[in-house]
Amino acid sequence: MKEREQWTSKIGFILAAAGSAIGLGAIWKFPYMAGMNGGSVFVLLFIVSTLLIGLPILLAEFVIGRRGQADVVTSLEKLSKGKKWNWVGWMGLIASFIILSFYSVVGGWILSYLIRSITGGLSGADFGGLFNDIIADPMEVLIAQAAFLAITVWIVQSGIKGGIERASRWMMPLLFIFFILLAVRSLTLEGAMEGIRFLFVPDWSYLTGKTVLLALGQAFFSLSVGVTAMMTYASYLQKEERLGQSALNVSILNIVISLLAGIVIFPAVFALGQSPTEGPGLIFVVLPAIFNEIPFGGFFLIVFFILMLFATLTSAIAMLEIVVSTGIRQKHNQRKKAAWIFGALIFLVGIPSALSFGILGDIKLFGGTIFDFADLITSRIAMPLGALAVSIFAGYVLSQKDTAEELNMNPTIHRIWKTLVRYIAPAAIVIIFVTWVIGL
C-alpha cells in the first residue's frame, strides 16, 4: 500500500483549493445568477453569505480533513469515535458524483465553443441559434462531455503532486492573467459604467427571501462546501500549515474572481445593449455576440473560453478527487484504475442531463429539465444540508482539543469561529432552507 500523498507546499494547496472554488460557480453561474436576481443586491448577499457562513464552514471542512488524514468517510468515522457520522461523507460523495455528471456537460459546451472560436466557427454566427443547436445535438454534447471528463480523469489519475497540484500551479495564474486582460477590455467599452452600476449600486426591491437563498446557495456552490471537497483536499495537508489563513485566502480569491467575472461580463452586456437576464446561456449567447462587435474580438473570445476551460477543470478535478479518494479508501495504488472507472460511470449518469436540451427535452422534473433537476437537488438541497451537517459536526462532535490543535489561533478568534459554526451558520441555513421549501 502506498503512503498517503501530501501537498508539496502551502501555495500548491491554496491554488488547488481556490481552483476547486473558482470554477463554473464563479465564472458561469455567478454572473447569470446575479443578472437574473437584481445584480448588486445578489452580489452583496453573496459576499455576506461567503464570509459569515461559507468561510466558517470551509474552515470546518479544513479542520475535519486534516485531523482525519484520510478519505472523508474514514475521517468522519475516526473522528466521531463510534458515532454514525460517515453518512455525511457518503452524501458528499454522491452529491459530487451528481454535480460532476451535469457539470461535465457544461464543460463539454465550453470545449465546443473553444474549438469553434479557434477555427473561426463563431465568426458572424447567430449565437442564440448556435447555442440551441449545440446543446440539442446529441452526438456533439456527448462527445464533448466525454472529452472533458477524459481530461479531468487524466489529471486526477496522476495523484496530488503529479496531477492536481501541478495542473493548479499553472492553470490558476493563467486564469488570473486572462481575467484581468478581459476586465480591462470590457471596462474600456463605451457605456460600460452602466454595467458597473448594475453590479455595485443596490436596487433593494430585489431583497427577498428567494434572493437570500439563491445567494447562500451560490456561496456554497462556488466555495465547494457541503460536498466534502475541501475536506478531501485538507486531508493531504501538512500539519504546520495555518488553516485559518488558508481558508480566508480561498474565500477572498473566490469573491474577487466572482466580481471580476461580473466586471468582465456586465459592462460589455450593457455597453452593447444586451440583457443581463439571459440566464445560463449568458456566456454562450450574449458574450460571443459582444466579442464579435469589438476590435480583436476573436482573440478575446479565444482567451475567454480558455479561461473558462481552466476554471471548469479545476473544479471538476476536486469533485472527481472526492469520488476517487473515497472509492479507493486507503488503497492508493488503485488510483489510476479507479479514476477511469468512476469517470466512465459519471459520464453514463450525466447522459440524461446532456440530452435534456434535445431529445429528452420533453421530460420535466419539478418544472425543469433533467439538467435543472440535478442542479436543484445538489446546489439547493444536498450542499446546504451537507454544510449544515459539517457545521454541526465541527461545532458539537469534534472536541475542543481537536479544533484548537488544528486551528492554532488566537483563543478569541477560535471562540468566534466556534460560535459561527455552532449557532449562526446552522440557523441561517435552516431558516433560509425552510423559507425556500415553503415557497415552492
TrEMBL record:
The keyword Membrane applies. PROSITE patterns: NA_NEUROTRAN_SYMP_3. InterPro entries: Na/ntran_symport, SNS_sf, YocR/YhdH-like. Pfam families: SNF (PF00209). It is a multi-pass membrane protein. The chain crosses the membrane at residues 12-30, 42-64, 85-111, 141-160, 172-192, 212-236, 248-274, 294-318, 339-361, 381-399, 420-439. The keyword Membrane applies. It is found in: Membrane. It comes from the Bacteria. Keywords: Membrane, Transmembrane, Transmembrane helix, Transport. This is Sodium-dependent transporter. It comes from Sporosarcina jeotgali.
